[in-house]
Design a protein that fits this description.
two-stranded antiparallel sheet; globular; four-stranded mixed sheet; Aminopeptidase; 6 strands; 4 helices; 132 residues
Length: 132
């Protein structure tokens, strides 16, 4: 679990507001390729990652609602809870992506569909161009 939390903290330091998430897209593509996964990116910046002969596809989105000082996110812990100072945390799918990253570390034969701009109208999910 601690590796997942560390991955999540890493994600909080990469700007990924809706419509402005290219840095996180680039990070995720590199992360997957470094672990020998096949990676495709479509026109609306959805990311399809796969390895082996998977029978399961996990899905998450990689943009977040930016409030306050976001995309600069300063995290802290209070009474066992991770929080963001003067910002939204982006935990709803940031944690899902952190779990996906951990599974990639393990070399799991899975598909990962990471969609763009969910927070502003399901743009990526509505325009998926991959043959799943």
């Amino acid at each position: 679990m601690s590796q997942i939390i560390e991955y999540f903290k890493t994600l909080t330091q990469i700007p990924h507001c809706s419509k402005e998430a290219d840095k996180l897209l680039d990070f995720l593509v590199s992360f997957a390729k470094e672990r020998d996964y096949s990676v495709e990116v479509d026109e609306v910046k959805n990311i399809f990652i796969s390895k082996g002969s998977p029978t399961l596809c996990l899905q998450a989105h990689y943009d977040m609602v930016c409030m306050g000082k976001a995309p600069t996110i300063e995290t802290y812990e209070e009474e066992g809870w991770m929080k963001a100072k003067d910002s939204s945390l982006g935990a709803d799918n940031g944690m899902a992506i952190a779990i996906m990253m951990r599974l990639m570390d393990e070399g799991q034969a899975l598909e990962f569909l990471v969609t763009s701009d969910e927070e502003v109208g399901l743009i990526g999910a509505n325009e998926v161009a991959f043959d799943l």
